[in-house]
Amino acid sequence: MAILECKGLSKRFKYVTALDQVNLCIEPGRVVGLLGPNGSGKTTLIKLAAGLLTPTEGEILVNGQAPGVESKAIVAYLPDRDFLPGWMKVEQMLSFFGDFYEDFDADKAREMLTRLGINPKQSFKTMSKGTREKVQLILVMSRKAGLYLLDEPIGGVDPATRDFILDTIIRNYNPDAAVVISTHLIADVEQVLDEVIFLQQGRVALQASVDSIREEQGKSVDQYFREVYRC
């Protein structure tokens, strides 16, 4: 069974159609790049899968069910901005996640925090942007989820932090799960991807394996993306 499936999925806001008749299927055990220019619908699709928005038309299914209480129990979502209150200390965040998610592995989170030298008594608001990104990612990736939805997880951080984030994703996700990574930084993430989905003006322009793009196009995913979306 697909872990994420969209059937004729559309999402319209007052003045814009963010997604238009999207059909796609993501299988477990895959790391998928969700790629497209600004305004192509990437964040909207992720929010629909996370149950934060509802479709205008069509349906989106997580493990065969419409997003709801059951699906949220197996979805680990990392938004593209800080989502934890600044007053919280890291140790409080661990307790918070442990209370909310039965699949949260606090020991795994502590191990990664220790490896990075992050003080569990430090409050979120006193951290640099890169450290906040690391902490939030550690919390999300310390869950044994079925679907990880990561919206711009490496945006706005230095190259060394990008390397840590990508390494954390690959080393810690449940191998029976799927990971969806929305990003503009294709060259940085291409090495960890199994397949890609190109969105363009709210529609799926392409869904293909990374290997097939390299073999059929004779280009890297980054090169092919630049060709498809050339201004």
Number of helices: 9
Low-confidence stretches: none
- Derived from helix and strand composition plus strand pairing, the structural class reads alpha/beta
Overall mean pLDDT stands at 90
Strand content: 15-25%
Largest sheet: 6 strands, mixed
Number of individual domains? 1
Helix content: 25-40%
| CATH-defined architecture | 3-Layer(aba) Sandwich
Shape: globular
**What strand order characterises the main sheet?**
5-6-7-3-8-9
CATH topology: Rossmann fold
Order of helices and strands: EEEHEHEHHHEHEHEEHH
Q: What's the CATH class label?
A: Alpha Beta
Fourth-tier CATH superfamily name: P-loop containing nucleotide triphosphate hydrolases
Any key phrases for this structure?
single chain, six-stranded mixed β-sheet
Quick recap:
The chain has helices at residues 42-49, 69-72, 90-100, 106-116, 129-141, 159-172, 186-189, 210-217, 221-228, and strands spanning 4-12, 17-26, 31-35, 57-62, 75-78, 147-151, 178-182, 195-200, 203-209.
Structural commentary:
There is one protein chain. This protein is of the alpha/beta class. It is built from 9 helices and 9 strands. The protein has helices at 42-49, 69-72, 90-100, 106-116, 129-141, 159-172, 186-189, 210-217, 221-228; strands at 4-12, 17-26, 31-35, 57-62, 75-78, 147-151, 178-182, 195-200, 203-209. The protein starts with a strand and ends with a helix. The mean pLDDT is 90.
